[in-house]
Amino acid sequence: MAVTDEAIEKIKGMIVSGALRPGDRLPKESELAAELGLSRNSLREAVRALSLIRILDVRQGDGTYVTSLDPQLLLEALSFVVDFHRDDTVLEFLAVRRILEPAATAMASALIDDAQLQALSDQLDALGAAPSVEELVACDLEFHRGIVQASGNSVLCSLLDGLSGPTTRARVWRGLTQEDAVSRTLHEHRMILGALRDRDAEAARSWATVHVASVEQWLRSTL
């Protein structure tokens, strides 16, 4: 493992230094191994590891390339890791979401355009006053994704997208067991949308905090 770690660090060093740039093809395995002073086996393991986290792209019959290194591509690895969360870590995911999502919502208040506001409004209108829990949670995910996208920060969008999965089951369970969960969620969505329409960053931040914190508080009370 130590040898593989060394190989990973050497390839990383080539990318960070600019010797290898996004889209570049790596030298042949034998040449690169000799250049870096590595065995071909350790180099092969390093390439495999870096391809799993989207740093490298191994194309059968063509060679190995540095990916675009786009943040959204690299953060897909987060979603892979998040899929292995344990139930007792859901509160931790919610806490991170409570920190990031209000900030993204405040950012969106200054950047969101009329078409995006209308799309959010149409989502809520289509949901109606008495949706099923499953419909509400699906809309909740799309509603917040649309807001975060409007913040203009692709890294923040990718982070929150990856963090939303582990909290979905908690939100469904809350909707099924808490008497006013559906009506409260609909009200909070409307208040967030109103703050965005008013371009009121602090109100948008506050309502987004209330919205995420309400799920977190409910979950704490059930544990």
Q: How is this structure best described in words?
A:
Helix 1 (2-17) crosses helix 3, helix 6 (90-111) packs across helix 9 (154-177) and helix 7 (114-127) packs antiparallel against helix 10 (181-197). This protein has a two-stranded antiparallel ribbon with strand order 1-2. The protein is built from eleven helices and two strands. It is mainly alpha-helical. It is 74% helix and 4% strand. The mean pLDDT is 86. Strand 1 (56-59) and strand 2 form a beta hairpin.
Task: Kindly report the average pLDDT value.
Answer: 86
Strand order of the largest sheet: 1-2
Q: Show unreliable segments.
A: none
Record field, number of beta strands: 2
Principal-axis shape: elongated
**Secondary structural class:** mainly alpha
- Hey, roughly how much beta strand do the residues contain? under 5%
What percentage of residues falls in helices of 4 or more residues? Answer: over 70%
Question: Which properties best describe this structure?
Answer:
223 residues
Summarize this structure briefly:
This protein is mostly helical. Helices cover 74% and strands 4% of the residues. The protein is built from eleven helices and two strands.
